[in-house]
Design brief:
This protein is an alpha/beta fold and about 450 residues long. It has helices spanning about 15-35, 80-85, 85-90, 115-125, 145-160, 170-185, 185-195, 210-225, 250-255, 265-280, 290-295, 300-320, 325-330, 345-360, 360-365, 370-390, 395-400, 405-420, 425-435; strands at about 1-5, 10, 40-45, 60, 75, 135-140, 165-170, 200-205, 230-235, 260. The relative contact order is 0.08.
């Protein structure tokens, strides 16, 4: 429900999600409002059926902050600020109450080749905390579902864990709580809060790097939980071995369990994500062409993908236009312009680039040799030949020393399996694909 009052567009949102909506979509709502209603109208998120309490302020929501260009953003204040700074100061040494996003569940997580192992591991951990994989370390770039998996674990254990206690935090929040506990002389309460749980979920653990005292405390927290059989799940934007500024003893503990990754979704998975999000948000029958265009334009970030859908739907709603491919093109043209078509590579180019990347000769690549240093590059090259050219399987086999089409199929399957669980293999395929696609 939305209404205009005293130069403000009031949008009703439930208490439990109002701050989350303001944080994630406040600026988008402000931009859409300005485009349709004019730059002087600002957006405020309010509780359902709430009456105005004054120009520019509603419960839990601050008035928009104008930037240099006169545009506004919507911001949510959070509970401590609304209740006053005195209580916030008393609570500074204690961690915030658990807050799990109810929309982030295993049922709502879209599974694809890029995240299948991470999803399976997270579900196993949720079903058997402290038994399946401990610790579980999930790494990958931002916006690909790591936080979704953490909240899915939290929601599952809360619902089916027979009273097991769960704490979700970020590395930044953990650091702030620790500093507050030191300053407030209440480190015992801090330790009890983190070491007295059955499942500890820590997001963006890379931000613990170069914070000596916090790393020390987290090391002891990790050990205390692990020794009692409590489950630990960590996420990061990089592999443990790439956390160069973190103490080696912590990196070693992160690697002691299961390390898995999430990668950018393929086109089919992106479309499924959009359809599920449209269903979740009760968006009535969006045009298939619109979803396909969004999936084609936004390729590397699930969060950005969903944001693009919300942007298109919001613009359509505010202008009274249906969500079509034409509307999606209009809304996304500036942020996500159409990509140029990739140049078709040839089998010979694939062989040459692959051989160069692995430091072998093309003759070695197509030879009968089964040495490991040759076999893997050959499988990878045959995989790329099937993916990036229009050659038939027999033709590809002939180009690789007279091999059969079943050999090419086997190489394709083995490579697909390897890149699903081996980040280095995935990066090798990605780099070669980018190189071969350049004009």
């Amino acid at each position: 429900m939305a209404r205009q009052e005293n130069g403000a567009l009031l949008i009703e949102a439930p208490d439990e999600t109002r701050r989350w909506i303001a944080d994630r979509y406040g600026r988008l709502l402000q931009i859409c409002s300005a485009a349709v209603l004019g730059p002087d109208v600002h957006v405020e998120l309010v509780a359902p059926l709430e009456t105005p309490t004054g120009a520019g302020m509603r419960a839990g929501v601050e008035p928009p902050v104008r930037d240099g260009a006169g545009r506004g953003t919507v911001r949510s204040t959070g509970g401590a600020a609304a209740r006053g700074t005195a209580q916030g100061a008393r609570d500074s040494a204690r961690p915030l109450p658990a807050s799990f996003n109810p929309r982030h569940t295993f049922e709502q997580f879209v599974i694809g080749d890029s995240n299948r192992l991470a999803h399976a591991a997270a579900l196993a951990v949720a079903e058997m905390p402290g038994i399946a994989y401990n610790p579980l370390f999930i790494c990958g770039p931002p916006g690909l579902g790591k936080t979704h998996l953490l909240h899915s674990i939290a929601n599952y254990v809360t619902a089916y864990g027979a009273g097991a206690t769960v704490r979700y935090t970020t590395a930044e929040a953990f650091t702030n709580h620790f500093i507050g506990a030191i300053h407030g002389g209440d480190t015992d309460a801090f330790k009890a809060a983190y070491r007295g749980v059955d499942v500890l979920l820590v997001d963006d653990v890379q931000f613990l790097q170069a914070k000596a005292r916090t790393e020390e405390e987290f090391f002891h927290t990790f050990n205390a939980l692990h020794q009692t059989g409590a489950q630990i799940v960590l996420t990061s934007d990089r592999l443990p071995r790439d956390l160069a500024d973190m103490e080696s003893r912590l990196r070693e503990r992160f690697e002691a369990g299961l390390v898995t990754d999430v990668r950018a979704p393929d086109a089919s998975t992106r479309l499924t994500i959009l359809r599920k999000r449209a269903q979740q948000d009760a968006i009535s029958a969006p045009d298939a062409g619109a979803l396909e265009l969004i999936a084609d334009r936004v390729t590397d970030n699930v969060r950005a993908l969903e944001g693009a859908l919300i942007r298109v739907v919001a613009f359509g709603s505010l202008t009274g236009r249906p969500v079509t491919a034409e509307l999606a093109e209009e809304v996304l043209a500036g942020l996500y312009p159409a990509r140029r078509a990739r140049r078709r590579a040839t089998v010979e180019e694939i062989q040459s680039q692959t051989a160069e990347a692995f430091g072998i000769s093309v003759e070695d690549l197509v030879s009968p040799s089964r040495a490991a240093a040759v076999a893997w590059p050959r499988q990878l090259a045959m995989y790329l030949a099937r993916e990036l050219t229009d050659q038939t399987l027999p033709a590809i086999g002939r180009a690789f020393g007279g091999r059969t089409h079943t050999t090419v199929l086997h190489a394709h399957r083995k490579t697909a399996e390897r890149i699903a669980g081996d980040r280095e293999a995935y990066e090798a395929v990605r780099r070669l694909t980018e190189t071969l696609g350049r004009p």
